[in-house]
Structures are given as structure tokens and as C-alpha cells.
């Protein structure tokens, strides 16, 4: 497996991380995601990590990097499905997921992204889909 | 990785298959899916296979089995994201995915499931959520 599939659903891209991340895979995911944001004009990225038993500093950095790049492309990143044990470890390690919002599960994550999109009609990011209003 | 995560989104369960399936994993997926259909009352199962480079008879049987069990539990299964090469091989091998509908991508698959749910308000499967009408 050399690519993690990205599902497009409305204005949101959904990624489920199921395999151990390594350098090349992480880079490929970031590239694919940014290319897909640019192509589809997606405003939200939802990353589901319920399968991950460990979030170490490598994965943490990868997530922060994806979120930062996505933000530049005007898409918000939400992390969903984090296991409680992973959350505890993150806090203990002092790893901060700067710029990433979290949600308990995919449904709440989608609601979060939807609320954000509904809320910033007049915001800085709205010129992108200016055709609509 | 011993479990494939199942994402619940509204009345649909979404599964992305990214790893090579083996016996135990396929069985676990079927168990998890049926348990989740029973628990959540989901009416649709969407299986995304864009990462699969091969669908052999083992995976074919697994998909057919998941669809059959889901149908007994009153949930429809849609297969989304099949690669063109996989489709060609399926036809050449004469593998029939009995009882499984297919869609080009997740978005169309969701639309298919939505249309099915909207269309069978008076159908055989509607006694399950009889509270609503």
C-alpha cells in the first residue's frame, strides 16, 4: 500500500489512517491531500485515527503540518476518533497538536466542520467561493 | 492492525479497505459491521476499495458475505471507488458480486444509499423504523 485513500464527501475530505505511518507515506498523504484540496475546493479535512494505538512525535508533527498547509489553502483540519489512551499519552508527552481541532468521532467532526463553514460566510476565507453570494 | 475502523455518518457506515485482507481480518470486519448495524440501526454500508489493486475470489466472497448479512439486518451495501483495472479483472474472472451495488466514488455511493432510503418508505424494510411514520 503506497497511498492512503482520500474520500471526498461534499466539501470535506475524509482520511482514515489505518496503517503505520512512515516518512514516505506521510509525505505522500500530505501531497495528495493538498492536491485534492486545490482541485476540489474542499473547505474541511477530517482525519480519523481510531485505529492508531500510538501517536508519537512523528505522527504529531505530520498532523500539525497537514493542518498548517490545509489552512493556507483555506481548509480546516479536524482530528476524529482519538483513543482515550492516545489522548493521555499526548498530554503526558506534552505534544501539542497546534492548529488542529479534535472531535470524538466522525459525526461530530463533520458537524464541527459544517458549523465552521456556516459561520464564516463573511470571513476571510469567503472570497474563494464568492460565486455563491 | 487487527481491526478496520468503521465510520458512522448519519444512517450509513463507511469502511475504507486499505490493507491486505486475510481470513481473520475479514471475519473481524464482518463481525464488527454486523454488530454496528445492529447497534446503530444503520441502513447503508459503504465500502470504499480505491486502495485495492486486486479483488480476488477471497475478497469477492467476503464482500458478498458482508452484503448478504447486512441485507438480513436491513442494510444495503454499496461498493465504491473500484479501480478500472479491478473491474476488468472481475469481469474476466467471471466473479459476480451478487447483491452488491457499485458506485464510482463515495459521493455517488452515498447518493445511491440516500435515494434507496428515501424510496422505500413503504417497502418491506420500513417496519424497523416504524416510529417515524
Outline the secondary-structure elements.
2 copies of one chain form a homodimer.
Chain A (H helix, E strand, L loop, with lengths): L5 E4 L2 E5 L6 H18 L3 E5 L8 H16 L3 E5 L3 H10 L7 E3 L2 H14 L14
Parallel strand pairs in A: 2-3, 3-4, 4-5
Antiparallel strand pairs in A: 1-2
Helix pairs in contact in A: 1-2
Task: Walk me through this protein's architecture.
Chain A is an alpha/beta fold and 133 residues long. Chain A has a single domain, classed as Transcription Regulator spoIIAA (2-Layer Sandwich), CATH 3.30.750.24. Chain A is built from four helices and five strands, in the order E-E-H-E-H-E-H-E-H. Chain A has helices at residues 23-40, 57-72, 84-93, 106-119; strands at 6-9, 12-16, 44-48, 76-80, 101-103. A five-stranded mixed sheet of chain A has the order 1-2-3-4-5, sandwiched between helices. In chain A, helix 3 links the parallel strand 4 and strand 5 (101-103). The A-B interface holds A 1, 3-5, 7-10, 14, 16, 18-20, 48, 50-51, 81, 105-107, 110 and B 1, 3-5, 7-10, 14, 16, 18-20, 48, 50-51, 81, 105-107, 110. Chains A, B: Residues 1-113 form the STAS domain.
How is the largest sheet of chain A built, in terms of strand order? 1-2-3-4-5
Strand content of chain A: 15-25%
Query: What oligomeric state is this?
Result: homodimer
Radius of gyration of chain A: 15 Å
Helix content of chain A: 40-55%
Order of helices and strands of chain A, N to C? EEHEHEHEH
Question: CATH topology of chain A, what is it called?
Answer: Transcription Regulator spoIIAA
Query: Could you tell me the mean pLDDT of chain A?
Result: 88
CATH architecture of chain A: 2-Layer Sandwich
Instruction: Assign an overall shape of chain A.
Output: globular
- Say which CATH homologous superfamily of chain A is assigned: STAS domain
Amino acid at each position: 500500500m503506497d497511498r492512503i485513500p482520500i474520500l471526498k464527501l461534499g466539501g470535506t475530505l475524509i482520511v482514515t489512517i489505518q496503517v503505520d505511518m512512515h516518512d514516505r507515506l506521510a509525505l505522500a498523504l500530505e501531497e495528495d491531500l493538498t492536491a485534492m484540496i486545490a482541485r476540489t475546493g474542499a473547505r474541511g479535512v477530517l482525519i480519523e485515527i481510531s485505529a492508531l494505538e500510538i501517536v508519537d512525535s512523528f505522527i504529531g508533527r505530520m498532523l500539525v503540518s497537514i493542518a498548517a498547509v490545509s489552512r493556507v489553502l483555506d481548509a480546516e483540519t479536524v482530528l476524529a476518533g482519538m483513543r482515550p489512551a492516545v489522548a493521555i499519552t499526548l498530554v503526558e508527552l506534552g505534544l501539542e497538536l497546534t492548529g488542529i481541532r479534535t472531535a470524538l468521532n466522525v459525526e461530530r467532526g463533520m458537524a464541527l466542520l459544517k458549523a465552521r463553514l456556516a459561520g464564516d460566510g463573511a470571513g476571510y476565507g469567503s472570497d474563494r467561493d464568492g460565486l455563491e453570494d
